[in-house]
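Here is one chain, start to finish.
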Amino acid sequence: MSASPSSDQSPPAMPQGSYGYPGAMPTIGIDLRRVASALYRNRFIVGGIMLAALVLGVVVTLSTTPVYRAVGTVQIDSQVSEVLDEDAAATPVEWDVERFLQTQLDVLLSRDMAGKVIDRLGLARDDTFFDRMGIAAPAIAAPGKTMAETRRDIIASSLIGNVDAELPRYSRVVDVSFASPDAKYSSTIANAYIDSFIASNLQRKFDSSSYAREYLEGQLDLAKERLEASERQQVDYAQRFGLIDLPEPGDRDGSVSLVQTNLAEANSALNRARTARFAAEERYRVARAGSAFAIPDVQDNGYIQGLQREIAAVSAQISSDAERYKRDHPVMIEHREKLAGLQQQLNAAVGNARGALQQEYQAALRNEQRLASQVSSLRSGTAAEQSQRIQYNILAREAGTNRAMYDALLQRYKEVSASAGVSTNNIQLIDRAAVPGAPFRPNPVLNIALALVAGVLLAAIYTILREFIDDAARTPEDVTDRLRLPFLGTVPKIEKGADIVTELENPKSSSSESFAALRTSLGLLSAEGLKTILITSSQQSEGKSLVAYGIARSMARAGQKVLVVDTDMRRPSQHQIFATSREEGLTNILTRQKTWREVLHEPQDNLHLIPTGPLPPSVPELLASSSFEEFRDEVSELYDVIIFDGPPVLGLADTVLLAQRLQHLVFVTEAGRATHGRAQSAIRRLRENGIQIDGAVLNKFDPRQSGYGYNYGYYYSYGQDAAG
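Its structure:
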């Protein structure tokens, strides 16, 4: 009897607490039991992640370079006291004071102030700042900037990132702090910020302050020393590399280097030589390719012209005497000899003219090559000089900057000296930054707390991702939710070393009780009663054979007459469970070699077995034969239930053939076993062939791994003494 086609509709969800397993824990938005189950299953990895995060936090704390923060204080007054009473300013309103104080803090933390600190401490001169701060010095300049500008920008950014200024509420005393890995260096830079801040503010008021004049005197001396040093360095550099500038013609202020002047002159000479070589080459080419008498030098040669006239005269004489004398006459012979001599002299003269043109061309070519080599050498020298002038220009700019600074300071000093009004500075030093005795970072307590929080988050993410990609059915809900099958019951996982057959001997064991509950669930499948049941799974080793045996054993204990038929001919196992032989069995029946009674094993009164028998050449042909249906119909009349232990669904056609010839199909899946989609593939294959799956059994179920807790086992262990 064929099974009815399966419906595409999802099976109804099973009610909580049905088929003997306890109801779900109360949930508020999320399933707490699933969360507990996931955490329990992943407890070692979760604990490992949290422990690793904690260890990492400790390692980071111990390996982090200590950072020291030096703090100094300055007082900022919004109004300064004036020497002259008439210069006293009006008292500012409160909101203007707050804006003024915030402006002062912005000035203190600005990049301009960082530049003043760099100049005050000379931080850009060497790599001391980079070494003390633990940052790498730049190897190349940033695009569009020089190396000095790049270094200065990096130092300024580092200063801005590590300096801080805090103004407590209702106070005008500002805490100026700087943090670095070096305690003394932190104090030095913090004090440099304070000094630069005070000096910067003072510079804006020095035109009316005597203190400003004293400050400017010191700055003038320093500026003068820097100017003299930079000018000496510029001159020394020019002398060392022989950088000589000549005045630009027609430009009083402009100048050009000696190498550039020589290069320009050599280029001009090369152009003239190249022009001369072109002309000589053209004359020589014409002399070689055309008639020699077409050469201007030949045409203008007086000696050649004289020879041509003599040749013409002798030729005329020969023509005249030829009428009177015969060819071999002495007069005619003399004329011809004279003509040959003149012609030879003419050819020699023309050849000499051609040779002179060739020599002229070769001389012009050599002169051009010599000048080209000289220009190339001068160009190399110019390139080297340009490379040297980069540093020279840097020194020149530095000297110019120093001079401009000196001139500006001198001019300002004159203005201040001429000023009559004097005011005091409204920024006063309260406390200089002392060398800190202990680091303020890292904070061990905070780091460990953050590490624990990170560990909890990582563990949660790991657990969620693993549960999301894990397709294993672990709980009854997974059977209905993931496999979309009605849930029939669970078979508990037996302890390691235990024997399921021995377990089933005890009617009060957890295994016996689980199969009793499963028997009850199967009894609800059909009002007419069960007759033929196929037990299968998606893949091997999921325990379908033991489930088939357990169901049969439970039904037999309930008084039903049960026959177990082992149809897994490729990997038979029922003969091992029943502790009997499989030499003769279903194969002999289907090939009509034996009757089913001849191969029947009767280990118990109500529980009989027909093993597979020998492996046939083609299992599908036997299962599809009419002899199988005859065997099924015959034993169905004598037994209450026939349980067929079928092969796995995937990779074989046997299960589909069997399911199409039997009434009911029970799908067995191993709890907690990742199927990688095999279970869904097996179910889809059965349904595509029009086979209805009556339900699923969750085998090797461990309530502790599923999140049900230990109380689940109590339902299958009543009547047993409690441990302890």
